[in-house]
Design brief:
heterodimer, A: mainly alpha, globular, B: three-stranded antiparallel sheet, 3 strands
Chain lengths: 257, 430
């Protein structure tokens, strides 16, 4: 039974992300490299925020639970802010690299567009964030025994898996919206991304684990629609795509109509 | 178990990263004796017959370094990075999977290699640190001596001795270590297997491995064997190197790699330069090559034809007439020269990357540390390949990756882990 829980939760948590990776990213080496670089940037931001949290814990009173909780929330807020800062730094780095590559190759088109980079880097952030959040939980779910024996919620593994999936997809949507907002200098959109990240990370922690999933998925849906529109999608595009009548897409993929 | 000399030396000269875009060094051929040296000369005239930008595809010749070359360098560069990411990832996956499932490789043992004679079982921290530093000094000196010995042998053309040495060490790895590994896997999963079956399995595995590595074989099979022997070697190191010594050795060997490959009198640099002067490939048992020159394991001629046609479509309109006649004869050199652009990575690099990640997986049941080290090593490799594309000469592949790996290991283990544990307990998702 524990194997079923393990595989089920793994596929729930990573299924959509791995599917996205396999179908859109795995064939292009450049995208894979930028994905891993995005994951690395997220890792560095986590490292810095853990460092600050660790130092603050060492100098604080370790016996007071309330203080530790407060410090943890402070750590979460700091971590979110640092993640967004690193996302911005990655954006700047990619812009510079793209310009450099453009002048170097003297061609009109860049090998990879900024929108693709937004998607790929968002997914990189998401992969790393999801993996760090859930891998230890998954490893424990294989082991003998399960949760909920002492009256805690039985749905810990399942809600963790769903939350992880939401976080990975959210990071991707945040990446797309963020880069687009930076391109068009719309700082209110950047602020909205930061605020929604804070909302998802800080407020949803209650003993009933499941109740926090609904608002998260609402935010996920809203961000998804926003990302869709900022990436250039529209209802018309969607209809054409779904009925296989989008001529540009078909031409680009060498498929018959 | 005290291991003998012949198996541990195999990592010495393997820690170098060489580009084969330098046309003087042909990419690895499975049988260096078969391909006559005048073949490379005869291929050049066929390349220069092509006109203008289309020649960028056959940019194996130095003379045509222009803007299109840079664009293709980027695309090929990215492809080469991925061609190295995959084997490095596979090696690490094999090592981590073994470490997590087969407990033999993480059991505490009092046996140590003869290269690390000082024990770490002492009570005081200072003594332990001193012992690990001494162990490192001994290990690095052994490596240096063996590398210099190998370079001297190579310089004085004692090829038979070197080949014998390499054959002996790969025999040891392919037969003895894989036998041990198989035994431990059977013990872990409680499978009872009889000796004749094991004998047949090991004999076939080892014999095919020897042929693939030292003679001819399909490229992917050869790559698979090289990955497997690197993984086996890494597992031996993880088991028999004491804790702190392993970390100090990792640090010291990346410094040694930096010195040996970049300094003018460094042994590895001399090895690579001598090989380039003599127009010979470096020994097949020491280097992982991502691409190959000849038809073994290549795409079928139809595919070669098709790829030639696709690239011709990008050529200038005016020259299309001239090109279409000579297309059949040029599709082969195009394919070859494209294959020529593979990148090589020394097996020692595979081994030490896997040792780092394996040690991260072995100490503590924590997966975050393993993931962090994995990403750090891949990014280091990416940066190293970027530098390779800029400088176009042999570079050490260990320093950047191992530095990142060590930094991320220690910081994740001490800083990030408590933070993430607290977050997971309170169900905070960042």
């Amino acid at each position: 039974m524990t194997a079923a829980v393990f595989f089920g939760c793994t596929f729930i948590a990573f299924g959509p992300a791995v599917a996205l990776f396999l179908f859109t990213i795995a064939r292009e080496p450049l995208r894979v490299i930028f994905l891993i670089a995005g994951a690395f940037f997220w890792l560095v931001s986590l490292l810095l925020s853990s460092l600050v949290w660790f130092i603050s814990v060492q100098i604080s009173n370790k016996n007071s639970a309330a203080q530790q909780k407060g410090l943890l929330i402070f750590g979460v807020v700091l971590s979110v802010l640092l993640q967004e800062t690193f996302r911005f730094a990655y954006y700047k780095l990619l812009k510079k690299a793209n310009e450099g590559l453009l002048t170097l190759s003297q061609e009109e088109t860049m090998p990879i567009s900024i929108r693709q980079l937004a998607y790929v880097s968002g997914l990189g952030f998401g992969f790393m964030s999801g993996a760090f959040s859930v891998v230890n939980i998954l490893a424990d779910s294989v082991g003998p025994g399960t949760v909920g024996i002492h009256g805690d919620s039985q749905h810990y593994f399942l809600s963790s898996a769903f939350m992880t999936m939401a976080i990975i997809l959210l990071h991707m949507f945040w990446g797309v919206v963020f880069f687009d907002a930076c391109e068009k200098q719309r700082w209110w959109a950047v602020a909205a991304v930061v605020i929604s990240h804070l909302v998802v990370s800080c407020t949803f922690q209650n003993p009933e684990y499941v109740a926090s999933l609904v608002p998260t998925y609402i935010i996920l849906f809203v961000m998804g629609v926003w990302a869709f529109y900022s990436a250039g999608g529209s209802l018309r595009n969607l209809k054409l795509c779904l009925t296989c009548k989008d001529k540009d897409f078909l031409l680009a993929n060498h498929r018959p109509r | 178990m005290n291991t003998s000399d012949s198996d541990d030396d195999s990592y010495n000269e393997r820690t170098a990263l060489v580009t084969s875009e330098n046309p003087v060094v042909p990419s690895y051929r499975p049988d260096p004796d078969l391909t006559p040296p005048n073949d490379t000369a005869s291929k050049r005239p066929r390349v220069t017959r092509r006109s203008g930008p289309a020649a960028a595809d056959g940019g194996g010749s130095d003379q045509e370094v222009d803007a299109d070359e840079e664009e293709l360098t980027l695309k090929y560069g990215a492809k080469h990075v991925i061609m190295l990411f995959i084997p490095v990832t596979l090696c690490m996956v094999v090592v981590v999977a073994t470490i997590k499932s087969v407990s033999f490789y993480t059991e505490k043992t009092d046996q140590q290699l003869i290269y690390t004679p000082f024990t770490e079982n002492t009570t005081s921290v200072g003594r332990r640190l001193l012992n690990s530093v001494l162990n490192t000094i001994i290990m690095i000196s052994v490596i240096v001596v063996m590398t210099i010995f190998l370079v001297v042998l190579y310089k004085y053309r004692c090829y038979k001795f070197i080949h014998g040495w390499l054959i002996l060490s790969s025999l040891m790895l392919l037969f003895w270590f894989s036998f041990m590994y198989l035994g431990e896997v059977f013990k872990t999963y409680n499978l009872a297997v009889d000796y004749p079956t094991v004998g047949v399995i090991i004999w076939n595995f080892g014999a095919v491995g020897m042929i693939c590595i030292h003679w001819k074989g399909p490229l992917q099979l050869q790559q698979a064997y090289l990955i497997l022997i690197s993984a086996l070697m890494a597992l031996v190191f993880i088991k028999y190197l004491p804790e702190w010594s392993a970390w100090v050795i990792l640090g010291a060997i990346s410094i040694y790699d930096l010195v040996a490959v970049l300094s003018p009198k460094g042994p590895l640099r001399m090895l690579v330069e001598t090989a380039q002067e003599r127009n010979e490939p470096i020994f097949p048992a020491l280097i992982y090559s991502s691409a190959m020159m000849w038809t073994v394991g290549m795409a079928s001629p139809i595919d070669a034809e098709r790829s030639g046609q696709e690239t011709d479509e990008e050529a200038e309109q005016s020259s299309r007439g001239a090109e279409s006649e000579s297309r059949p004869s040029r599709s082969f050199p195009e394919e070859e020269l494209e294959e020529d652009r593979g990148v090589k990575l020394g097996l020692g690099d595979f081994i030490f990357y896997s040792v780092l990640v394996g040690k991260a997986a072995a100490t503590g049941g924590d997966w975050n540390t393993t993931l962090a080290c994995f990403v750090a090593i891949l990014i280091g490799l990416c940066l190293t390949l970027l530098l390779l594309a800029i400088f176009k000469k042999a570079l050490p592949a260990l320093p950047i990756s191992i530095t990142f790996g060590l930094v991320f290991y220690f910081s994740t283990d001490f800083l990030v882990q408590p933070f993430m544990d607290n977050l997971a307990a309170h169900q905070f998702y960042i």
